[in-house]
Structures are given as C-alpha cells and as structure tokens.
Amino acid sequence: MNPLEILRGLWTVFRNMLEKPVTYQYPEIKRPVRQRFKGRHELKRYENGLEKCIGCALCAAACPADAIFVEAAENTDEMRFSPGERYASTYEINMLRCIFCGYCEDACPTEAIVLEHNYELSFTNRREAIYPKEMLLVPVPPNGKPTPQQVPSGAFDKAIPEMENPD
Amino acid sequence: MSAASLLEWTLKSVVIFLIIVGGFAYTTLFERRVQARMQTRIGPNRAGPWGLLQPVADGIKLIFKEELIPAQADKLLFLLAPVVTVLPALIILAVIPLGPAVQIAGREYSLGLASNVNVGVLYILAVASIAVYGIVIAGWSSGNKYALLGGLRSSAQMVSYELALGLTVIGPIMLAGSMSIDQIIAGQRGLWYAVLQPLGFLIYFTAVVAEVNRSPFDMPEAEQELTAGYHVEYSGMKFALFFMAEYGKMIAVSFIGATLFLGGYLGPFVDRFWWLGPIYLTIKVVALLFVMVWLRATLPRFRYDRLMAFGWKILLPLSLLNVLVTAVVFVLVGG
To answer: Which residues contact A18 (CB under 8 A, 6 or more apart)?
Structure first.
C-alpha cells in the first residue's frame, strides 16, 4: 500500500463531508416518482361513474404471482356497476404477493386496472395486506353517479366501449 | 483509609465507567453520523433532536432481543467471554488523568483514579492484552468454525500488533524518564511527544487500530469470509457487550494516545482554569476517534497474509528503529 495513495483516498472521503447530503427526509419530503412508475393498483371509472372493470378475471390469469382474486356477478339495468353483462363483485389484490410487474395492466381489456404512483403500502398484519375492491376503486368523478346506478335499459350493453380511432 | 477518600475513589470509578459506557453509546452515534456525511448521507436523525436518542433506542432493542446459547457451546465460557472482553475496556482509563489536580476546600484532588501510579504505562499494556482472551474464548466456546477462525485470527493479529504497540510506548517513557502517566504529561508541557516522535505516534495509531480490530484491520469479524467472526453466535445483550468492548477500547486507546503523545489535558490557560483540562482532553480524544471513523470510511479490509506481513515486516522493524533513534538522540542530546 502506497501511503500517498492512502492520503489521497482519505482526502477524497473527507471532501465528501463538505458536500450537501443527497438524502430526502422521506416522510416530510417525498421525491416525485417517474411518470411510468408502477405503484399501487387503482380500479378506474368512466366519467359517468360506472366502473371500468367487467370482472373478466384476465388480470388474475395474467398475474405471475397469483396475487389477484376476482369474482364476477351479473349486472342488471336497475343495479348497474359497469357496462356489459358482468362486474367484479369481489376484487382483491394481495400486496404481499404482488410483484408490481404490470401484467394485469396489459391484460385488462377495458384499461380498468392501472398501476399508479402510490408506493406507501405498509401494513402490520397479513390480513391488511389484502386490498379489497373498496380500497382499490377510485372515487366517483365530479359529474358521475356512484355505483350501482339505475340506467335506462339498453344504454350500456357493450362490455368493451368503442375505442377511439388512434389517428 | 478514611471515609472521604473512599467516597472520592468510588465517585472517580463511577465517572470512569460512565465515560466508557456513555461514550460507547455516543461513539456509535458519532460514527454513524460522520460516516453518513462522508457518504453524503445524513445518518440517524429521527430519534430525539439530531438523533441523540438513537443509542437509547438501539439499547432498548438489544435488551428485548432473544438470548441464544448454541447447543454445541461451552455454556460457562460462552457466558464469560463477553465479560472478559468488556472489562479491560472499562478499567483501562483508571490511570489516565482527566485534568490537572484541583484544590477544593484546602484539599488537593487529582482528576484520575490512579494517575500517579509509577507503572501506569505497564498497567495500560497489561490490561489491554486481557481483551485477547475474551475474543479467543468467545471464538472457541461458540462451537462454530467461523467463530473459532475469527478468534484465532484475532489472537494472532492482536499479539503481533501488541509488539509494535509496546515498542512505540517506549518513546514517551524514555523522553519523560518515567512510566507514570502524570510524569509523561508533565514532560509534554513544552512540546507534545507527537512532535518529537512523529513516527512513534503514527505506528502507535496504526497498531492501536489493529489492536481494537477496527477497519481496515477488522479481520476477526470479516463479514465476507467469517460472517461475523468471533461473535457470530452472540445475540442480544451479550452481543451488545462485544460491541461495547470494541467502542470502549476505541475510546480508551484514544485517551491513551491523547495522553501519551498529544499532551493529555494540557493546553493554553489550563494552569489557571482547571476545568479547561477535561475539555482539551475531550477535544483530542474526539479528534482521534474521528480519524478512526475516517479510516473506516476510506480503507478496504487488509488481506490476512498482508496484515501479518505488515505487522511483522514493516511495523515491528520501524518501531524498533524508532526506539533506537530515540535512544541515540536522547543520549547524544542528553534529554
């Protein structure tokens, strides 16, 4: 070991003391996440308040960690949760299993499930790790109505809405 | 022995214990904060103002940890080892004066438990060597091959570096013409021995870092090869005792280094205001502790064969040379 090199190393380390620490004081100051950050899932709604999720369970099929459980039930025009025939009566994600890969997002035919930017998923027991539908569903938008809605018959027959032309 | 002097000695012993125990707690915090800054982080600052309660939180955590004794362990020695390791660190400060003698109500009090003992330096060397036993016993009694290897390494390393350490201490002894710590400090009134013995001070510091098993000489607890070395099987408060021994020894050797080479409690105006003595000593000790933390933040761990080669082929001859040169100059100049 060359003593001069040791001194050089010591000086390099000491110089770092004079620099500003890069630490974010986390709970008070939160670093904004990237736009495509994959955090906690959210179940989206249409503007009129209907849920996008149609209970098809493709997300559960795509999930490599088997974290999603979906149970579907029938929609009626008096008790309508989502467009089309069925809606998710139970929708649970086990956050201890989820690996935040985003395959559920890719599999969803109605773009109902989206991995959003919330990453503060701490819990103190295993039961709390299972996020039910009420926690995942986003609030009703301002000019929408809460589900279940009473709708005129035949208005929301198609489960998958018309996609806008990509052009 | 009168009741008054008994009380005086008891008080001094309690203060010395508190310096090591309290110092241990806050040296851990000091090390974590300083290292964090060296890595451009902030370090623990949540528990209490500026993280000052962090050692308390750590202590509470360690108390509530499970105490585990391996089935293969030799129970008595396993329990004895942390005690043997920590005791030298606690008692080694007995011969270090914390300040000049104080006159209170017509009686003179020295600010050290036994600083006028005429074998002070010998006491330091003797007590410092006991810690090796604790580590070897810990390694052997755990019934674990990693612990055993850690203990073996540690004994080899500490014995090798103790030679260099003992030889560097001869410098101040020769210059002061006495083994008494009080005499050695009095001899530095004009000039620190670190100035007269720069090589000796450097070797002392290097040997001492190896002696307390600090990075870059922390071979006995090398994480990569030995998982944690001699204390791999220890948990809870028994582990905390080893931790305390390491940091206690860090503080103790800083006190000794400051006393033997940096003039101890001496400094400007210390003759007029006695309370400046402990302050100067604290500043010097913290400076030495800072350098130890700094070294840990900078240098990677030595390879074991290089560690031994460094100790035997470089440090030992250098310290012998230092003793020789000091002796020759001493005789020629005549002190």
So the answer is: none
**Closest CB to B38 among A16, A23, A25:** A16
Q: Do B294 and A25 touch (CB under 8 A)?
A: no
Output the six-digit token pair for A28: 């008070």
- The ipTM value here is 0.72
Per-residue pLDDT in tens (0 to 9) along chain B, 335 residues: 687 778 888 888 888 888 888 888 888 899 999 988 888 888 888 888 888 888 888 888 888 888 888 888 788 888 888 888 888 888 888 888 887 777 776 677 777 777 777 888 888 888 888 888 888 888 888 888 888 888 888 888 888 888 888 888 888 888 888 888 888 888 888 788 877 888 888 889 888 888 887 878 877 666 667 777 777 788 878 888 888 888 888 888 898 888 888 887 887 777 777 778 888 888 989 999 999 999 888 888 888 888 888 888 988 999 999 889 888 888 888 65
Distance from CA of A116 to the nearest CA of B (A): 29
- The b-or-e profile of A16-45 (16+ CB within 10 A means b, else e) is ebeeeeeeeeeeeeeeeeeeeebebbbbbb
**DSSP letters along B38-88, please?**
HTT------SSGGGTTHHHHHHHHHHTSPP---TTS-HHHHHHHHHHHHHH
State how far the Cα of B181 lies from the Cα of B178, in Å rounded to an integer.
Answer: 8
Q: Which residues of A touch B41 (CB under 8 A)?
A: 21-23
Q: How far is A28 from chain B (nearest CA, A)?
A: 12
Cβ distance of B298 and A17 shorter than 8 Å: no
* Best to test chain A binding among B37, B199, B205, B303 (most A CBs inside 10 Å): B37
- Shortest CA distance from A20: residue in chain B: B40
Element (H, E) at B313: none
For residue A89, the SS3 value is strand
Neighbours of A68 (CB within 10 A): 23
Provide, as residue numbers in chain A, all residues whose Cβ is less than 8 Å from the Cβ of B295. 10
Q: Which of A70, A81, A50 is nearest to A131 (CA)?
A: A70
